[in-house]
Amino acid sequence: MNEKDIFEDQDKSLLEDREENPSNPDGSNRSTNEENISGEKEEDVFEIRAKDSFQEEDEEDEDEKEDEDEDEKEGEDKEDYGDVEVKKEENKEEEEKQVRSYSEFRREKEGEEDLLESIGLKKEIEKAEKRIRKYIRETPLVYSPFLSQQSGCEVYLKFESAQITGSFKLRGALNKILSLSKKERKTILVTASSGNHGAAFAYTIKKFGLKGMIYLPGYTTKAKIDALKYYDVVLKFFGTDCVKTEEHARSEAEKNDLLYIPPYNDLKIIAGHGTIGIELMKQIDKIDTVFIPVGGGGLISGIIGYLKPMDEKIKIIGCQPLNSPVMYKSVRVGKIIEMVSKPTLSDGSAGGIEKGSITFDICKKYVDDFVLVSEQEIKEAMRLIIEKHFSLVEGAGALSVAAFLQQKEIYKRKTVVLVLSGSKIALDQLKEVIS
Ligand SMILES: Cc1ncc(COP(=O)(O)O)c(C=O)c1O
Fold first, then answer.
1. What pLDDT score does 383 carry?
2. pLDDT in tens, 160-191
3. What's the half-sphere exposure (Cβ side, CA atoms, 13 Å) at 339?
4. N or C: which terminus of the chain carries fewer CB neighbours within 10 A?
5. Is the CB of 299 under 6 A from ligand 1?
6. What is the pLDDT of residues 387-418, one digit of tens each?
7. Distance, CA 194 to ligand 1 centroid (Å)?
8. What pLDDT band is residue 112 in, cutting at 50, 70 and 90?
9. How many Cα neighbours within 13 Å face the side chain of 208?
10. Residues linked to residue 212 through DSSP beta bridges, in sequence order
C-alpha cells in the first residue's frame, strides 16, 4: 500500500462510522478484517473504547469491574518512594495534607548547570515567535477585579482559552510543524492527544495541506472528539492513560516510517508555548507569580523558558488535580513515575508523562511550587470564571484559578497571573458545573 492509499483508505470512513453510529465512537463496528497501516487488525488498535457518554451501560459495568481488578493488582505491586506512595492511595486525607507541603521538598539549586541555557530554550522561543506570530492570536490579559478584591493581590487572567482552536496548544503544534523540512512535511504526521493538542495539530495540518493521524485516549470527551470531526485527519483510540496512547502512537509512527509529533516532549513544541511568556512581558510591567496548569509539562516549561531568563525572581507555580498529580509526584521522587490517575474534570491535564521527557527536568529544576486541587475546587473555579468573567474554561483551564484561590493568603499584595489554558468543556460537564 502506498502512503496515499494508506491515508485515504484508512480513514475518512472512521469519521463517517462515528457519525453514522454515535453509540460507537471509535468506529469499531467496522469489519475486524480491515487492516491499519501496520497490518494490525482494527480490533487490535481499538482495543480500548472511549469511556464517555456514548457508552452503553452494561459495558460500563464491565469496565468498572475491570478497573477494580486492575486497582487490586496495582495495589499488590505498588512502589513506595519513602514518603511518596505512588500507586495506591489509602489514606486520602493524610495524602492531601502531605502533598500541600511541597515547598519543603524543593530541589537544591546551587551548583547545578543552567539547563535552560544549555538547551537554548529562550532562543528557540524567540525563533518560534517569528515563525508562528502571524498564525496565532495574542490572547487577552484581563485584570480580575473580583479575584483581586477577594485576595488582596493584583490578579490578571491570561485567556489562552481564546486562542484559535480553543487552547494554547496551537502555539506548539504550529512551531513544530512549520519547523519540519519539506521532505518531512510530505510524510503522514502522527500524534497523540487527549484533544487540545489534537485540535491544534488538525488545524495546522489542514491549513498547510498536510496529512495527519491522531491517537486519542479512550477517555477523550465528546466535546473534544467533535471538535476534530471537521478536519481531514484519521482518528484512532488507544489506551486509558495518555502516556500509553503516546507510546503507542510513537511506536506506530516508527514502525511505519511516519513522523511522530509529540504533544509536549519536544523542544519546538515547548518553544511554541513559550511565546505566551513573550506576550506576558509586553502586556504587563510587573509579574511576581504565574500559576500554570500542568499535564505533561509542555506549557509550563515554555513559559519558564522565557520568563525565568528575563527575571528569575518571577515565581512559577504548577497546578494539578489531586486526582492526577503525576508531574508533582515525579518531581518529589526525582524521577518520572507511573501511577494510576483517577477521573477528573481536568481531563486535559490528566495522565502520565512520557519516559525521559525534557519537561520533567525543566519542572524539577524551575517550578517554584506545586499546588494540587480537588474536583470541588476545580468546579468552583470554572463557575467563578463563568459568573465573574462571562467566559468558559475547561477543567484543566481552571486549575490555575482553583490553585490560586486555595493559596491566596500567601500572595497578598503580589501581582499574579493565572493562565487559563483551554476552553473545550463538554455540555454534560458544563451542566454539572453550573447545577
Ligand atoms: C487545556 C489544557 N490545559 C493544560 C494542559 C497541560 O499541558 P501540558 O501537557 O503541556 O502540561 C493541557 C494538555 O493537553 C490542556 O489541554
1. 97
2. 999 999 999 999 999 999 999 999 999 999 99
3. 26
4. C
5. yes
6. 999 999 999 999 999 999 999 999 999 999 99
7. 9
8. low
9. 25
10. 189, 233
* Pick among 3.40.50.720, 3.40.50.150, 3.40.50.1100, 3.40.50.10860: CATH of 3-54+169-261: 3.40.50.1100
Nearest atom of ligand 1 to the alpha carbon of 293 = 4
**Closest by Cα among 68, 49, 48, 77 to 339:** 77
Indicate which atom in ligand 1 lies nearest the CA of residue 294: 11
Report the half-sphere exposure of 96 (CA within 13 A, side-chain side). 10
Q: Which three cell numbers stand for residue 408?
A: 491566596
Ligand 1 centroid from CA 347, angstroms: 9
| For the CA of 297, the nearest atom of ligand 1 | 11
For helices 298-310 and 121-132, the axis angle rounded to 10 degrees is 110
Mean pLDDT within 301-321? 98
Determine the pLDDT at residue 223. Answer: 85
Q: Which of 349, 360, 370 to mutate to test the pocket of ligand 1 (most atoms within 8 A of CB)?
A: 349
Equal fold, 3-54+169-261 vs 106-167+267-434: yes
| Domain ranges across the chain | 3-54+169-261, 106-167+267-434
- Ligand 1 pocket, residue 17 CB under 6 Å: no
Q: Is 246 in the pocket of ligand 1 (CB under 6 A)?
A: no
Fold of domain 106-167+267-434: Rossmann fold (3.40.50)
